[in-house]
Amino acid sequence: MSHRPCFAVPVAPQIFDLIGPPNCALDLKAPKVQNELKYREYPCTPHMVAFSPFRSNVLIEVGMTQESVTQISTFKVSMRSALAFALPFFLSIPAVADAAPKEKTLYVQVRESKLRAQPQFWAPTVQELPYGTALTALSAAPSNKSWLQAKVGETQGFVHVSAVTSRKIVINPSAKRNSVQSASNDIVLAGKGFNKQVENNYGSSKGLDFAAVDELEKAKIDPAEEVVFIREGDLVDH
Amino acid sequence: MIIELGGRAMRLSVKRERWYTFGVVAVLACLLGWPSLDLPDIGRGLVDATGVVSSSQVDTLLEAGGKLQQANKSLNDEQEYYLGRGVSAMVLQSYPLSQKNPGLTKYVSQVGAALAAHSSRPEIFGGYHFGILETEQINALSGPGGFVFVSQGFLEIISNEEALAGVLAHEIGHIVLGHGVKAISNARMDEALLLIGKEAATSYGPQELNTVTDYFGDSVNQVADTLMKTGYSRTQEYEADAFAAQLMAKTGYSVKGLTAMLDQLAKVNSSKRGGWMDTHPAPMDRKASLKLPRQSVSEEAVAKRSARFASALKPKPAFSLGGFLKNLGASAP
Q1: Which residues in chain A are contacts of B147 at CB distance < 8 A?
Q2: What pLDDT digit, counting tens, does each position of B54-92 carry?
Q3: Can you state the angle between helices B299-313 and B102-116, rounded to 10 degrees?
Q4: Contacts with B257 from chain A: Cβ below 8 Å
Q5: ipTM surpassing 0.85, yes or no?
Q6: Which pTM value belongs to this model?
Q7: Kind and range of the H or E element at A163?
């Protein structure tokens, strides 16, 4: 695994802070001793680098034997250089993070949603998003943080945060019982729990008619008509 | 300055440098804004600056958007939807849907949809649906899952679109704030979720089906009883009022419509019973607790909306062939 270089700043005996871009690693002056160093490999984010002296995090664990400490005596760190590096680095945190954004897969948790052309509820539809559709969150909409810029395949658009979940939705789960799936909080099995089968059973046993509810649900708002309604009434359409 | 690591001298040097580093980093932190960096992650600051999101930031956004539902995190959107259908079926068993004026139903739905789009939960499993109940009782109800009802009697006492928006925004508030699901007793919900959680299958055997149906029925009954008989707690009603004022302002409605609606309710309070009169706090108590957001809404816009409210209330004459021919004859030379 290749890393971008960074500097190590000692904060306690055998403990060092890394200062550098995300996913950085030690830039050893003496490559020969590299194998003797033991340190935790995890993403070196600007946040934790900056304030790790005040935390209990151990960024680098040098070998615990005296020998290994001696061995790394050839490793030199320029404190001045480290701080000189750190200052512009702090000032450019957004740019650094922008260069390495993390993407996240989300799933549509409503029966039908839309990928929209703008971060507005009544904006034109770019693509229909049925229940369970996986999409990749790219960024938050600058104008409204309740909207995410996302993509499905190569198609990009905006989706409201209320339409998606980070829990994977399995649309056609097997009827076979699967205790692993069932136990996971990261998975939603569509149709599980209160469902149409339960509703039908309840309706027939209690004589409760759902026809009126079905009729209520049939009525749909036409988005184009709604936009006219909103504008004619001088309401806010975004 | 070079630090050489190794031996006793190195350790002393490291100790001095540690304090030096501590000091320099502390000064840097103060200069560059400690509070903005001292977050669980760097999310909030970065989202503002660049729009880039990480996994944890998306989670924060989802939570802010209301998707980690306050009511019960284990009841997902789909289950809430079916619960709402059950509650709605109970409501419609007591009060049928009004079929007198389809145009009025469409108008009420358009007002409701304009409001819901500005809520923190515009997307709900089956979408929002608005219906008019055929009763003279002054009432408005909302079940979980996006089902909103307002009675014919209520529409007759309110005077304009702003007041209607106040009623609908209050009901949308109950949905977004999860009040309906919270009406289910915790013990019963825990039992139901435990049973549901045990099974990965979505198709139940006869015995399991009956057990889940019992839980479903109990949940539906508890929510329906709360809506139609006992009412939500005073705190929840005040929360829904506060939510309504904010939602109206975001949508562009005058929040004075909400207080005007409460004034109108107070006038009829002593003469009519049932519905909101029995399940809600006294209108003047609600008005006193309401903090209205500052806003500027033109009187012209309010008048325009009032005109279309009045127009929507008038039933459109049904087409009559006889009348059409009569009119045709009268207009002929």
Answers
A1: 213, 216
A2: 556 655 655 554 444 444 446 789 999 999 999 999 999
A3: 140
A4: none
A5: no
A6: 0.70
A7: none
